[in-house]
């Protein structure tokens, strides 16, 4: 409506005057206004409808404004908006029960945080206290959050400005078949070589000094590159052998994104700690946390855990989690995500790859897919440099938005990450738009 658009224009003015944005040079930044959102759709400041194939920051796993979750938040607000973390609250207890039920056996306790970064910070703190060791191994080409330690754990250029060499973080090369650091030509070779590299890293850094290994089960923002067969099992075996806590970061990959409740379910590995956020309640109210193994938990039975947050287990956030998990179950969203990935997105992306010389690789699972764009299929030179953008990528993104689709993009990749309850018709429409937009990318192929 005209009133909605007028409100949007006023909000945009005020935003530019007073809002300081994440990760931006504030001056040139011209944010998109969203005046309305519902299901798989959002409406921009001109009132244009867009298919949200970004799920925002890959968090609205049940789509926008799911009525059952909106109602649960309203009901909780009418009942108890907030209560300090030291008290019992039924929304918090029930959320913890449901999350522990989703996690593998032997991880029965949940520490709630405000989001993913602080979940990783606390998981590392727990691992350090539990093992009495300080160093942490994490992968290049990863993202673990924006707070001080989390951004250092991160393996992308955003950490450069925040690098803190004293923090005990050591990065290793992950298994990444499309751009193998190890010169591998098959997945089996990649698994074997990446694990040998990791074993060498552990030996050279001194296993007796390594508290934890932190790894995104399926790295998200860094490229949605699932681990090749055997890799995670190998990581589990290596860490176990050396008494190193294996922390699986499921902040983006967890809660149905890959077509399983947790991404680790695809490989049947059991980490010592699991971090989550985003999809746990679709981000309707900020929430994250750490799922804790009985072994780590035992360290804090007689000893105080030195950490806490005013909003740990916030009732509004936990009520949203309970309603989200329930809606996912009742509406078969995980099954839908799996079917969309296996039967619709995967096959259609293969067609797109066959047709467009600018497409170097398509990969993913469930509602979690990446299209990697290149200037040249043989050399695999990316269409935008690592850590940067390019005219070509901007042109492709412009064409996709012009076509009525909001994708998630990073460097030379377009991520196809719709909500888990997306319809087949919406997937087909969005992928047709992306298909046409890739003609633009083909114009940059050398
Ligand atoms: N870990 C992963 C894998 C993520 O994708 C993100 C956010 O994108 C985070 C951690 C950080 O979560 P938050 O932004 O809620 O702090």
Summarize the structure.
Pfam families: Aminotran_3. It contains 13 helices and 16 strands.
**C-alpha end-to-end distance:** 46 Å
Top-tier CATH class of the largest domain: Alpha Beta
The CATH topology of the largest domain is: Aspartate Aminotransferase, domain 2
| Number of separate helices | 13
- Name the CATH architecture of the largest domain: 3-Layer(aba) Sandwich
**What is the number of domains?**
2
Give the averaged pLDDT, no decimals: 97
Strand order of the largest sheet: 4-10-9-8-7-5-6
The CATH H-level superfamily of the largest domain is: Type I PLP-dependent aspartate aminotransferase-like (Major domain)
Structural class: alpha/beta
Q: Total strand count, please?
A: 16
- Which ligands occur here? pyridoxal-5'-phosphate
**Percentage beta strand:** 15-25%
Instruction: List the helices and strands in order.
Output: HEEEHHHEHEHEHEHEEEHHHEEEHEEEH
Helix residue percentage: 25-40%
Q: Mind telling me the C-alpha Rg?
A: 22 Å
Low-confidence stretches: none
Q: Looking at the structure, what is the overall shape?
A: globular
Family: Belongs to the class-III pyridoxal-phosphate-dependent aminotransferase family.
Protein name: PLP-dependent aminotransferase NCgl2355 (Class III)
Keywords: Aminotransferase, Pyridoxal phosphate, Transferase
GO molecular function, one term: pyridoxal phosphate binding
Ordered list of secondary-structure elements with their pairings:
Elements (H helix, E strand, L loop, with lengths): L1 H17 L15 E5 L2 E4 L4 E4 L2 H4 L8 H13 L10 H13 L4 E7 L2 H16 L3 E5 L8 H6 L15 E4 L14 H19 L4 E7 L14 H11 L3 E5 L23 E4 L11 E6 H5 L16 H16 L2 H23 L3 E7 L2 E9 L4 E2 L8 H12 L2 E2 L1 E3 L2 E4 L7 H19 L4
Parallel strand pairs: 3-14, 5-6, 5-7, 7-8, 8-9
Antiparallel strand pairs: 1-2, 2-3, 4-10, 9-10, 11-12, 12-13, 12-16, 15-16
Pyridoxal-5'-phosphate binds next to helix 5.
């Amino acid at each position: 409506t005209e009133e909605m658009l007028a409100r949007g224009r006023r909000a945009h003015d005020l935003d530019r005057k007073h809002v300081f944005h994440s990760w931006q040079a504030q001056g040139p930044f011209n944010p998109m206004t969203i005046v309305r959102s519902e299901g798989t759709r959002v409406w921009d400041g001109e009132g244009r409808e867009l298919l949200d194939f970004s799920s925002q920051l890959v968090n609205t796993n049940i789509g926008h404004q799911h009525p059952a979750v909106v109602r649960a938040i309203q009901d909780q607000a009418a009942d108890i908006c907030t209560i300090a973390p030291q008290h019992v609250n039924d929304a918090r207890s029930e959320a913890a029960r449901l999350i522990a039920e989703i996690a593998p056996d032997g991880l029965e306790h949940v520490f709630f945080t405000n989001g993913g970064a602080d979940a990783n910070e606390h998981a590392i703190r727990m691992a350090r206290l539990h093992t009495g060791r300080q160093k942490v191994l994490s992968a290049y080409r990863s993202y673990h959050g924006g707070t001080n330690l989390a951004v250092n754990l991160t393996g992308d250029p955003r950490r450069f400005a925040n690098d803190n060499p004293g923090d005990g973080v050591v990065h290793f090369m992950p298994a990444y078949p499309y751009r193998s650091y190890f010169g591998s030509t098959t997945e089996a070779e990649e698994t074997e070589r990446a694990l040998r590299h990791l074993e060498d890293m552990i030996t050279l850094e001194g296993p007796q000094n390594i508290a934890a290994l932190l790894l995104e089960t399926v790295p998200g923002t860094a490229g949605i590159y699932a681990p090749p067969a055997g890799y995670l099992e190998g990581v589990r075996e290596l860490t176990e052998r050396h008494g190193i806590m294996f922390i699986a970061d499921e902040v983006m990959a967890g809660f149905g994104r890959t077509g399983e409740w947790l991404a680790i379910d695809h490989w049947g590995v059991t980490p010592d700690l699991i971090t989550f956020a985003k999809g746990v309640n679709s981000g309707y109210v900020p929430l994250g946390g750490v799922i804790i193994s009985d072994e780590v938990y035992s360290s804090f039975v007689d000893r105080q855990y030195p950490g806490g947050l005013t909003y740990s287990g916030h009732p509004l956030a936990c009520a949203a989690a309970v309603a989200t998990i329930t809606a996912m179950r009742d509406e078969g969203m995980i099954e839908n995500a799996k079917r969309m990935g296996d039967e619709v997105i995967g096959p259609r992306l293969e067609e797109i790859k066959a047709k467009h010389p600018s497409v170097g690789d398509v990969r993913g699972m469930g509602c979690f897919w990446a299209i990697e764009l290149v200037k040249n299929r043989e050399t695999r030179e990316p269409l935008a440099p690592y850590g940067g953008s390019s005219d070509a990528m901007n042109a492709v993104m412009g064409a996709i938005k012009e076509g009525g689709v909001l994708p998630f993009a990073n460097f030379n990749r377009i991520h196809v990450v719709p909500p888990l309850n997306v319809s087949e018709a919406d997937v087909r429409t969005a992928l047709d738009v992306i298909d046409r937009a890739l003609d633009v990318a083909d114009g940059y192929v050398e």
